[in-house]
Amino acid sequence: TRLIVTAGDGTRHEVEAADGLSLMEALRPLDIGIAGECEGSAACASCHVWVADAWIARLPEPEDAEADMLDCAFNTRAGSRLSCQLRVGPELEGLEVTVPHA
Ligand code: FES
Q1: What pTM, to 2 d.p., does this model score?
Q2: What angle do CA 57, 79, 83 make, to 5 degrees?
Q3: What is the distance in A from the centroid of ligand 1 to the CA of 23?
Q4: What is the pLDDT of residues 11-59, one digit of tens each?
Q5: Which ligand 1 atom minimizes the distance to the CA of 43?
Q6: Mutation probe of ligand 1 site: the residue of 21, 41, 80 with most atoms within 8 A of C-beta
Q7: Could you give all domains of the chain from N- to C-terminal order, each with its CATH number?
Q8: Where does the UniProt annotation place the signal sequence (predicted)?
């Protein structure tokens, strides 16, 4: 599945991600600030991304744990998601996200 990622410094990356990975796992190897410190437990917010406006409504709603963690995260805005809580699959083809920090 092809993903388009803008890093905190503005560089744009196109990623071909294996289906079934979390978005965090797909983005972490790029080394652009997705740390995934809690390994996907929705407990650290080091995988925070901004989803492009056009994608906000196309993604599953955040579960409570994700919503609670985002409430504590820095730099949140409309489209903020924990990338570890999103699963790569065909429905994400062409997804655009931005990493909030450099
Ligand atoms: Fe920790 Fe996503 S990896 S909240």
Answers
A1: 0.96
A2: 100
A3: 10
A4: 999 999 999 999 999 999 999 999 999 999 999 999 999 999 999 999 9
A5: 4
A6: 41
A7: 2-98 (3.10.20.30)
A8: none
Nearest to 24 by CA among 99, 91, 102, 77: 99
CA torsion through residues 65, 22, 35, 1, sign: negative
Residue pLDDT, tens place only, 48-87: 999 999 999 999 999 999 999 999 999 999 999 999 999 9
DSSP 66: H
How much is the pLDDT for 9? Answer: 92
pLDDT at residue 102, as a whole number = 52
Whether 99 and 33 have beta carbons less than 8 Å apart is answered as: yes
Return the ∠ at Cα 96 (arms to 91 and 97), rounded to 5°. Answer: 115
**Ligand 1 atom nearest 46 alpha carbon:** 1
